[in-house]
Amino acid sequence: IRCPVKECDEEILHGKYGQHLSNHKEMKDRELYSYINKGGRPRQHLLSLTRRAQKHRLRELKRQVKAFAEKEEGGDIKAVCMTLFLLALRAKNEHRQADELEAIMQGRGSGLHPAVCLAIRVNTFLSCSQYHKMYRTVKAVTGRQIFQPLHSLRTAEKALLPGYHPFEWKPPLKNVSTNTEVGIIDGLSGLPLSVDDYPVDTIAKRFRYDAALVCALKDMEEEILEGMKAKNLDDYLNGPFTVVIKESCDGMGDVSEKHGSGPAVPKKAVRFSFTVMNIAIAHGNESKRIFEEVKPNSELCCKPLCLMLA
């Protein structure tokens, strides 16, 4: 209840209204407004009642809300009640709670999307165990699952791995399989093996180059479309596109100390990867560049092709 005394305007809970009003000495007619308990049990707070008692107390208000919803909102009582609740929260400056409720109403939930969590893990260079520790800590401290568990990140990661997106070569390439669902293959397949080439034992796993390239371009779809928009080109042009790639290989140092609790691994790890440097499209008589990698030496834009332990 809002206090009717001039220059007070305070909002008081119903049960504490009489006590508040007795503080205003200047109010002569306060008896008109003071809450009178006619004996029996004191009135309980709405949220402490049983569901049946809540329905009983709010039946008149519920009837009015239902009538309003049917007249104005096509009978959507839930939307009317939720909006009332949001307005009440925002009136009290409880915007964070209101934002979370709004997110749940729109089906977004208050947590982050697995793909966003994966991007955070990669961009902050967290290992899986470090990410898992952060996930558990945040969940324990806040009581809410803001970050997603590791298994959902691995599912999101599959969309970034070669072999996920179907594609077709036109015209078909000679000596290249038409099968697009390619997982990991032996890194040394197709290479002439001799003692001179490989004086040490190697274990290698690699992706098929064309499948890896298609996946990299699919991952860059938004950047490509934004680049076309910036150059005032249509969303769809049939090309030809020119994609410039830099291949690279880096030694990942001595990994014998990094194996954790698993089996000991060989001494050296080598990674073969490629980076999409720029993409251009033929438009009329000229070539327009629609994408350029600003940090071509960053680990974050390296698309792995092969991992070899030597």
UniProtKB/TrEMBL annotation:
Cofactor(s) needed for function: Mn(2+); Mg(2+)
Entry GO terms, CC: DNA recombinase complex; endodeoxyribonuclease complex; nucleus
Protein localization: Nucleus
DNA-binding region(s), chain positions: 39-106
Catalyses which reaction(s): S-ubiquitinyl-[E2 ubiquitin-conjugating enzyme]-L-cysteine + [acceptor protein]-L-lysine = [E2 ubiquitin-conjugating enzyme]-L-cysteine + N(6)-ubiquitinyl-[acceptor protein]-L-lysine
Keyword Zinc: yes
UniProt main location, coarse: nucleus
Coiled-coil segments: none
Cofactor: record remark: Binds 1 divalent metal cation per subunit. Mg(2+) or Mn(2+).
GO molecular function: double-stranded DNA endonuclease activity; histone binding; protein homodimerization activity; sequence-specific DNA binding; ubiquitin protein ligase activity; zinc ion binding
RAG1-type domain mapped to chain residues: 1-28
Annotated NBD domain residues: 39-106
Keyword field: Chromatin regulator, DNA recombination, DNA-binding, Endonuclease, Hydrolase, Metal-binding, Multifunctional enzyme, Nuclease, Nucleus, Transferase, Ubl conjugation pathway, Zinc, Zinc-finger
Gene3D superfamilies cross-referenced by the UniProt entry: 6.10.140.510, Classic Zinc Finger (3.30.160.60)
Enzyme Commission designation: 2.3.2.27, 3.1.-.-
GO biological process: adaptive immune response; B cell differentiation; chromatin organization; T cell differentiation in thymus; V(D)J recombination
Subunit structure: Homodimer.
Functional note: Catalytic component of the RAG complex, a multiprotein complex that mediates the DNA cleavage phase during V(D)J recombination. V(D)J recombination assembles a diverse repertoire of immunoglobulin and T-cell receptor genes in developing B and T-lymphocytes through rearrangement of different V (variable), in some cases D (diversity), and J (joining) gene segments. In the RAG complex, RAG1 mediates the DNA-binding to the conserved recombination signal sequences (RSS) and catalyzes the DNA cleavage activities by introducing a double-strand break between the RSS and the adjacent coding segment.
Domain notes: The NBD (nonamer binding) DNA-binding domain mediates the specific binding to the nonamer RSS motif by forming a tightly interwoven homodimer that binds and synapses 2 nonamer elements, with each NBD making contact with both DNA molecules. Each RSS is composed of well-conserved heptamer (consensus 5'-CACAGTG-3') and nonamer (consensus 5'-ACAAAAACC-3') sequences separated by a spacer of either 12 bp or 23 bp.
Similarity section: Belongs to the RAG1 family.
Protein name, per record: V(D)J recombination-activating protein 1
Lineage, highest ranks first: Eukaryota, Metazoa, Chordata, Craniata, Vertebrata
